[in-house]
Structure formats: C-alpha cells, structure tokens
Amino acid sequence: MGPNPHGGYSGPMPPEDAYTAEPFVPDGGGLPALRKAAADCRGCPLHRDATQTVFGAGAADARVMLVGEQPGDQEDRQGKPFVGPAGKLLDRALEEAGMDPADAYVTNAVKHFKFTQAEPRKRRIHKAPSLREMTACGPWLAAELAVVEPELIVVLGATAGKALLGSSFRVTQVRGTVLEEEIHGRPERLVPTVHPSSVLRADDREAAYSGLLSDLRVAARALGSG
C-alpha cells in the first residue's frame, strides 16, 4: 500500500532502510504540483511530529538555488523556508554580496522539522537529520533542481553538502570555492558555505558573518560569469 488518489498515505511506514519520498513525487506539473504533493509526503517518519511540510520557495526560473539543512521552528510554523532569524541574516548577506534574495530559489535538503522537546510546552530544539532521512527526502530536491535548473547552487552548511555531494563532504575544506559536480544526473556548479544559523551561534559573530559574506561574494562572481 502507498499513496492514495487523494494524496494521503494508506498503510504502515516502511522499514528505515526503505525510507523514500519517491512514490509521492508527481510527474510533471512544475513547482505547484511538487509543492502540493509534498504536503502529503510520508516517505519518512519526520512528518509525524512536524507541523507541516516546508517546501522550497521562489521562481521556477531562478538563476541561483540556496539549499539549507531543514526547516527550523519558525519555518515549521509558517510553512515557508528561511523566515526565521537565520533567513533574515541570509537575506542581508545576499544583498551585501550583490545578489537579490527575491531572485533566488530557497529550499532545504529535508522538508520537515526534526526536533527534540523535553515537555510539550517547552521550546523545540533542532536535531540534525540522519543520512537516511536526507536520502529519503532526496527525490524532492532532485525534482526541484530539474524544474528550476539553476545556474548555481549555494550549499548552506554540512548537512546540505552531504545531501548533495555525499557523506564525505566537509564544508570547512571547500567553502568559498566553485565546485563542478554531477548532481542527480545534471552537471551543476556549486559554492559551499556555512549555514547562516551557525553565524548566529558563533562566539565571534562578526567574523563568522564576514566569512559567510566572503563566500557569497564568490557565488555572486560565479553567477556573473555564468
């Protein structure tokens, strides 16, 4: 049993090694069809505790795609990516780097918020998704890439990098460089950097922000020469 004609899911969850969003991804229909279908994704257990699916946002013809890790608390509540403090910091850095945030497509490697919570009324604490959860969500990211066909992907943090480039990815080793790799069957240019939330957590926030800005300027130059 699997997805039913009404978009819901009938049947038990698959075993962990069989997690995948693949059966829920529609053929055709562009971003609106993908977003609608993703709202009912049951490809891994993360949908059980999350408020809602947080799909990507932006134009289908965006030249740059920004890929983060997963929705945070505010994104989970509002249903939109990068609307919390990290998103606001990212918008500021993009503008300073010479890229208009409105011209970018923003999304996450994982579309549901994964968190821990000591008590129901306590604050929900972000928890990094597992490799299997990232792999399960991969078909959504592949579908977004196929529709948007960005000229450049900005990889925000280690989790997004591992989702796109494999488990050996280390953001500290390649940040601020232009990589050329085949991703989901397409040749892509990528510029990795840190996730903006790491800037907010940094002891020296000013230095961390300067590093993010420097990496995004590399991306802006790569986009300009694309």
UniProtKB/TrEMBL annotation:
Keywords: 4Fe-4S, DNA damage, DNA repair, Hydrolase, Iron, Iron-sulfur, Metal-binding
Region ranges (Disordered): 1-30
TM segment ranges: none
Record-linked CDD domains: UDG-F4_TTUDGA_SPO1dp_like (cd10030)
Pfam families given in the database record: UDG (PF03167)
Coiled coil (residue ranges): none
InterPro entries associated with the record: UDG_Type-4/5 (IPR051536), Ura-DNA_glyco_family4 (IPR005273), Uracil-DNA_glycosylase-like (IPR005122), Uracil-DNA_glycosylase-like_sf (IPR036895)
Sequence ranges assigned to domain Uracil-DNA glycosylase-like in this UniProt record: 55-217
SMART domains (UniProt xref): UDG, UreE_C
Family: Belongs to the uracil-DNA glycosylase (UDG) superfamily. Type 4 (UDGa) family.
NCBIfam families registered for this protein in UniProt: UDG_fam4, UDG_fam_dom
Protein name, as recorded: Type-4 uracil-DNA glycosylase
Naturally occurring in which organism (per UniProt): Streptomyces plumbiresistens
